[in-house]
UniProtKB/TrEMBL annotation:
GO molecular function: nucleic acid binding
Domain Integrase catalytic: 53-218
Higher taxonomy: Bacteria, Pseudomonadati, Pseudomonadota, Gammaproteobacteria, Pseudomonadales
PROSITE patterns: INTEGRASE
Protein name: Transposase
Organism: Pseudomonas inefficax
Xref: Pfam families: rve, rve_2
Length: 218
């Protein structure tokens, strides 16, 4: 290519001369296409980090947080979205899909609202993933009267409770080779969430399970 030739000859030219040389050589410039998982600029909305790593709410249904992880099913990745009530680290919503998009996280949020109801002043915290910055998810939060908070870019510990939960899920429960079928994965995830909420002792809860912690606080 001309650019490689010029580089090899250690010749420096401006973009206008480079454009003229390319035109004479009948060459076109090709730009990279945007990554398909990135939101279009007109759609993306980044909320302020209102939570500011205050991971210790004083009551149930003050702060929910969410995130998405991937699980190997057969030879494909399937995506799991969860919603956690930070008060006792209880899993209150989840959804599972081949497509990691706004519909996935919206479905998890709708499950949480169905289980817990609507609450004035409730905050939802997540990272800046395109699922959460989308207009689709903004509308879902608005419909349920939920205030949005987001981690700062590149600061995974701004959403540390969900990071820790996924670490527990994958180290304690998910088979090393993944799952063979989608239904198997869905059933196993449901079993884990039920066990986690009812049975698993959590150091944050003074070694009570999330449900026991909530019952004690009631």
């Amino acid at each position: 290519m001309i650019s490689e030739y010029l580089k090899a000859q250690q010749l420096k030219v401006g973009r206008y001369l480079a454009g003229k040389l390319m035109e004479e050589a009948n060459l076109d410039s090709k730009q990279r296409r945007p990554h398909r998982n990135r939101s279009k600029g007109v759609e993306a909305f980044v909320a302020k980090n209102l939570l500011a790593r205050n991971f210790e709410p004083t009551a149930i249904n003050q702060v929910w947080c969410g995130d998405v992880t991937s699980l190997m099913v057969g030879k494909r990745w399937y995506h799991l979205a969860v919603v956690i009530d930070l008060f006792a680290r209880r899993i209150v919503g989840w959804a599972f899909s081949l497509i990691n998009d706004a519909n996935l996280v919206s479905k998890a949020l709708r499950m949480a609202v169905g289980v817990r109801g609507k609450h004035a002043g409730l905050m939802f915290h997540s990272d800046q993933g395109c699922q959460y910055t989308s207009q689709r998810f903004q509308s879902e939060l608005l419909e349920h009267g939920i205030t949005q908070s987001m981690s700062r870019r590149g600061q995974c510990w701004d959403n540390a409770p969900t990071e820790r939960f996924f670490g527990t899920l994958k180290s304690e429960w998910v088979p090393p080779k993944g799952y063979k079928e989608v239904e198997e994965a869905k059933q196993d995830m449901t079993s884990f969430f039920m066990r986690y909420n009812r049975i698993r002792l959590h150091s944050y809860n003074n070694y009570l399970s999330p449900i026991a912690m909530e019952q004690q606080a009631a």
